[in-house]
TrEMBL record:
Record field: transmembrane: none
Record's GO cellular component terms: membrane
One GO term of the biological process aspect: ATP synthesis coupled electron transport
Span within the parent record: 197 to 562 of 562
Organism (species): Murimonas intestini
Subcellular location(s) per record: Membrane
Record's protein name: Iron-only hydrogenase group A
């Protein structure tokens, strides 16, 4: 629910339990990056500790048939959004490119700056891309096993519930993400299930989509999308190059960060924003011709999804810092750092996505 009590957000936990109890339904979960650094603290674990393995374990025990990490589709988002940026730079049109993975920001542009709607990336969010890919996979009669597939998305965000029912993100006229629950709803489910979460042994995600890169993990923190895109745009894979990107100004919890990075024969001008009040300041500058960015990343929540409206509330500075650190540590622990290194993503382009990238990964209109 809304912490101010101004709006009541409907809970969807009962729908999830109903789906899990139905033997004719395959229930597939996807878990967003920011969720893993907020669940542990509710069960007495260290603040900001990444508990993705325990989340996979508890979801498997509850009866989820497959558990996936949304970092996989964050990698897909990076691939598509990088291409879109390069294409707009070539055309010198529809710049700055505005990121599209935060639904609250997308709605803000539609409501407050409608003249910039065509600047919004057409890419679906990682939630939208993943659900479309899962549904497409299970459209194949060889994979269905006679079951209906229900996709449950576990997000740090109440706005993701609204995003899931937006018809411009449907595939073949149908909703791809069936149920969205927040981190707090997941915590409630774990409590109701009555399992000792902190003692669970960690488990891996499932195949065929169970692998993500560090670039996908850092989507949960402000600047993460930009950092992942810059990793994608750099042709090299060496640690020194990735460290230089991390230190170019993309990190840090300031509400507005400006970064200029060399790319081929030009200087790429990027603005990274968190918080809608800051987004308004930046958009006013753009509107008045006082700024000429190529890319603007906006997350409506200050510090990004780690502080989303679906995360446990009353997070003080120590918690905010710990969640940020938790995601960067998770990135440090990943073998793959760049989205274009993810072999499952690359093989998807040669298989399931062939001729369907626009249909499955992009919104009909932004
Ligand atoms: Fe949701 Fe906030 Fe993340 Fe935007 S920044 S996607 S509103 S949690």
């Amino acid at each position: 629910y809304c912490p101010t009590g101004a709006i009541t957000i409907r809970t969807h936990v009962d729908e999830v339990w109903d789906a899990l109890a139905d033997p004719d339904v395959r229930v597939v979960a996807q878990v967003a990056p920011a969720v893993r650094v907020a669940v542990g603290e509710a069960f007495g674990m260290k603040k900001g500790m990444s508990v993705m393995g325990k989340i996979a374990a508890v979801l498997h025990r509850m009866g989820f048939d497959e558990v996936y990490d949304t970092t996989f589709s964050a990698d897909l988002t990076v691939m598509e959004e990088s291409e879109e940026l390069l294409e707009r730079l070539r055309r010198k049109e529809d710049l700055p490119l505005l990121t599209s993975c935060c639904p609250a920001w997308v709605k803000f542009v539609h409501d407050q700056y409608p003249e910039y709607v065509h600047n919004i990336s057409t890419c679906r969010s990682p939630q939208g891309m993943f659900s479309a890919v899962i549904k497409e996979y299970y459209r194949d009669p060889r994979n269905t096993g006679g079951k209906k597939t229900v996709v449950v998305s576990i997000m740090p965000c109440t706005a993701k519930k609204m995003e899931a029912v937006r018809p411009n993100s449907f595939t073949k006229g149908k909703q791809d993400t069936d149920i969205v629950i927040t981190t707090t709803e997941l915590i409630r489910m774990i409590r109701n299930y009555g399992i000792e979460f902190s003692t669970l042994d960690p488990e891996a995600c499932d195949m065929p989509f169970g692998m993500g890169s560090g670039g996908g993990v850092i989507f949960g923190v402000t600047g993460g999308v930009t950092e992942a895109v810059l990793r994608r745009l750099t042709p090299v894979h060496e640690k020194a190059a990735l460290d230089a990107i991390a230190e170019c100004g993309v990190r840090g919890d300031e509400g507005i960060k400006e970064v200029t990075v060399p790319y081929e024969d030009m200087e790429l001008k990027i603005c990274i924003v968190s918080g809608l009040a800051n987004a308004r300041k930046v958009m006013e500058k753009v509107k008045n011709g006082e700024a000429d960015y190529h890319l603007i990343e906006v997350m409506a929540c200050r510090r990004g999804c780690i502080m989303g409206g679906g995360q446990p509330t009353r997070a003080g500075d120590r918690t905010k810092e710990a969640r940020t650190k938790g995601l960067y540590n998770a990135d440090n622990n990943m073998i793959l750092k760049k989205s274009d290194e993810n072999p499952l993503v690359l093989s998807l382009y040669d298989g399931l996505l062939k001729g369907k990238t626009h249909e499955l990964l992009h919104n009909k209109e932004s």
